[in-house]
Design a protein that fits this description.
By secondary structure, the chain is an all-alpha fold. Helix content is 68%, strand content 0%.
């Protein structure tokens, strides 16, 4: 593998990186991944572990100059940028400046959710990050909202924060499939960890039937929910 831990990136360096990504193309993986994200058409076909390894390498160098030349011609370029932001060492304010510059580039669940999982700064600064997460949730943009929801899922489903997480699930959000699925997934995680509080929320929540039923479905699909509890959840389906 070429070395991409650089002290300063320019356009030529980034072209070399793109050529390296193209050299790692795996047609079989591209076909598999395309089925998972049918709306995305600009795949190279690089396996995700390889992209993650590149991100860690890049994050050891000058991240600011990398972000300055980074492009979004290919899905993998956007994924790489998000993972670099998550992996790079920086202070809190710089991290969030990078986040808000990056999220407008998100247009699919895979980049969104991978970026959120990599954004470890949020987990280290939960209190300070929550207003930033709320900015995403209140943005009105479906993918920014999805990012906010998945950040809640990854870092805030804890005793201290669970009431606020559940209340944020009741906010009117854009009528968008991946927003609804984000809420459903978030609620399923809340149920596994805080069953009583989550059921209290579901008994009198303003969720539309699609989101509500998808939340139940994801709870039922969880390996951490007993058969008896799954049977109870099936009875709560809305028609």
């Amino acid at each position: 593998m070429e070395n991409f831990t650089l002290n300063c990136w320019d356009k030529t360096d980034y072209e070399a990186l793109t050529a390296h990504l193209l050299s790692m193309k795996d047609p079989a993986y591209k076909g598999f991944h395309q089925k998972l994200i049918p709306d995305v058409t600009n795949f190279i076909g690089v396996r995700t572990p390889q992209v993650k390894a590149l991100a860690k390498e890049i994050a050891k160098g000058d991240v600011e100059s990398f972000l300055h030349v980074s492009r979004n011609d290919y899905y993998e370029q956007v994924m790489l940028e998000g993972l670099v932001i998550g992996a790079a060492k920086c202070n809190f304010d710089v991290f969030w400046e990078r986040v808000f510059s990056f999220v407008p580039k998100i247009d699919n669940w895979a980049v969104n959710d991978s970026f959120c999982a990599a954004a470890k700064m949020v987990g280290k600064h939960l209190k300070e990050s929550l207003p930033k997460v709320d900015e995403l949730l209140k943005s009105g943009d479906p993918w920014r909202v999805r990012a906010g929801l998945i950040l809640l899922l990854d870092y805030y489903v804890k005793e201290e924060w669970i009431d606020g997480v559940l209340s944020r699930c009741a906010i009117p959000y854009p009528d968008h499939y991946y927003v609804k699925m984000g809420i459903a997934w978030l609620l399923s995680v809340c149920y596994v960890k805080f069953e009583d509080k989550t059921m209290d929320f579901l008994r009198d929540c303003p969720l539309d039937n699609f989101t509500y039923n998808k939340a139940l479905q994801k709870m039922i699909e969880s390996n951490r929910v007993s058969k008896e509890k799954k049977d109870e959840l099936r009875k709560r389906k809305r028609f």
